[in-house]
């Protein structure tokens, strides 16, 4: 495996609201990715979990 980031089945809830539901991704080294989606899709929540600001 030559990935810089791997996330498997990440789930995050805020009370009864599900922000992320089984999100998985693998980003290979030497690549550039964008994270797109509508407001409230969980983009910021995923980035905060990746940076260990928030825990799943």
Account of the protein in words:
The model has no long low-confidence stretch (mean pLDDT 94). Strand 1 (3-14) and strand 2 (17-28) form a beta hairpin. By secondary structure, this protein is mainly beta. The protein is 14% helix and 43% strand. The relative contact order is 0.28. The two termini are 24 Å apart. Strands 1-2 form a two-stranded antiparallel sheet. The radius of gyration is 12 Å and the shape is globular.
Give a concise summary.
This protein has 56 residues and is mainly β. The protein is built from 1 helix and 2 strands. The protein has one helix spanning 43-50; strands spanning 3-14, 17-28.
Give the helices and strands, then pairings:
Layout: E1 3-14, E2 17-28, H1 43-50
Antiparallel strand pairs: 1-2
**Which sheet architecture does the biggest sheet show?**
2 strands, antiparallel
Radius of gyration from the CA trace? 12 Å
Distance between the termini: 24 Å
Which H/E pattern describes the elements? EEH
The strand line-up of the biggest sheet is: 1-2
What fraction, in percent, of the residue positions are helical? 10-25%
What is the 3D shape? globular
Question: What ranges have pLDDT less than 50 throughout 5 or more consecutive residues?
Answer: none
Helix count, DSSP H or I runs of 4 or more residues: 1
- Say how many strands there are: 2
| SSE class | mainly beta
Q: What value does the average pLDDT take?
A: 94
Beta-strand share of residues: 35-45%
């Amino acid at each position: 495996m030559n990935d810089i980031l791997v996330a498997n089945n990440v789930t995050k809830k805020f009370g009864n609201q599900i922000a992320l539901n089984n999100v998985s991704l693998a980003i290979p080294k030497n690549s550039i990715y964008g994270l797109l989606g509508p407001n409230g899709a969980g983009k910021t929540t995923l980035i905060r979990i990746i940076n260990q600001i928030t825990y799943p």
